Amino acid sequence: MSKLCIRFSPLNGYDIPGLESWLEKQAAKGLVFAMTMGPLVLFERQEPAKLRFHLEPAPSKPDWTDPELNELYEQAGWKYLGLFRNSFAVFVTEDPEAQAHTDPETWDYALKRFLRRKLLGGVGLAILNFVLLNFSWSSQFTPEYIHYYWAEILSYGFLPWILTVLGLVLMDISYLHGLFVLWRLHRQTKSGLPMTPAPGSRLSGALAALSAIPLFLVAVEFAFLCATHGYFPYDLADSNFVTLTEIEGSGFQISQKWPDYMDYISHEYTPLTPESWFFRQYGVGHWNEDGTENRNVPHLEINITRYFLPNLAERRVWEWESWGRGGYRDLEPAYDLDQIRFCEDEHLDGTISYYLILRRGGTVLRVEYRGEQDITQFLPRFAEMIDSL
After folding, report:
1. Residues 6 or more apart whose Cβ sits within 8 Å of residue 279
2. Do the Cβ atoms of 343 and 295 come closer than 8 Å?
């Protein structure tokens, strides 16, 4: 069995009486303090013992050591174990009568130093809040859009934004509680009162530990985007995507103007957003010479999203259905598809668009077609597209 054991500190890092009590309880279980690594506390496995711990403000030196202080405590029966987060020197003794006398002036100086450090950390935390919230924010995250189209906005980074907000809120609460703990210790020291564990310290420590989980996931997302931009387009050739030429016939002329014409498949995904594909083509003459749009030109647009869960894809089907003015109707499930929805939508100018929404598991495909062909005849091909993704 390994001699080292790792634990998350369950208390605020400045709750000295609470931390001392916690270390003593761990020693009674056979875990004696060794060192800290960020929010983690490392213990050595030993025989359970009734020990007393004392945390002394560490001197503000580059190497964070004070041999004279260590020697002074050793003469009083205390043993130096190491530093707790570069803030406190940890001393332990088996003698229940051993005294640890901390100079009040030292305490006052240390508490002021900790408070300055905490306030400086608050500036950094405010900058982190600003950077992360702006990085993950999208203009689509309005209350109305979130209410009606929450499955759609998952593709816009809604999950990273929610995780960012959650992690920062937990971290900010823990930070503010740390300020409260320091203020409380300072008041007790000034008044000559014994230091007692701060209320809410255990909750504050738990929130600090929990904040690391969503923020770690956001950090992975950010690193992935920096390395790849989350965009992986590939050639239309050999993609097995249905094209406008396949629907209209080999002699049909495709517009070569951007953005009417795409000879590639737009493909995006990140660890925290659904994988998506997009493809669009128009026939020649989509735009008139006077710059107005000619809606009578055949047009094909394909959107595909692969969600983490089938329930999200079902919600996306409903959201896409809510876009059209015409009513969708169910077609008989076939080709191993879970849902087939079809709609004919007549526009104000008399032109008609045809829509297909297909779902298989967590993958949902939406086809928008304007033309004279029966788009439902291509259901086998669209099902084949889903297979090839």
Report:
1. 236, 241, 262, 265, 266, 300, 301, 302
2. no
The one-letter amino acid code at 319 reads: E
> Could you give the CA distance from residue 149 to residue 162 in angstroms, rounded to a whole number?
15
Backbone angles phi, psi at 342, to 5 degrees: -130, 145
Task: Give residue 63's identity as a one-letter amino acid code.
Answer: D
Q: Rounded to whole angstroms, how far apart are CA atoms 193 and 188?
A: 5
pTM across the whole model: 0.79
Give the C-alpha separation, 320 to 152, whole Å: 9
Taking the chain (389 residues) in consecutive chunks of 10 residues, what is each chunk's mean pLDDT? 79 85 93 87 92 82 66 86 86 86 73 83 90 84 86 91 94 88 82 79 82 92 92 92 91 80 92 95 75 76 95 94 77 90 80 90 95 91 93
Q: Residue 83 forms beta bridges with which residues?
A: 89
Answer yes or no: are the C-beta atoms of 79 and 91 closer than 8 Å.
yes
**Contacts of residue 217, Cβ cutoff 8 Å, sequence gap at least 6:** 160, 163, 271, 272
Q: What angle do CA 357, 361, 363 make, to 5 degrees?
A: 55
Q: What is the pLDDT of residues 143-190, one digit of tens each?
A: 888 888 899 999 998 999 999 999 999 999 988 888 888 888 888 877
- Cβ atoms of residues 11 and 22 within 8 Å: yes
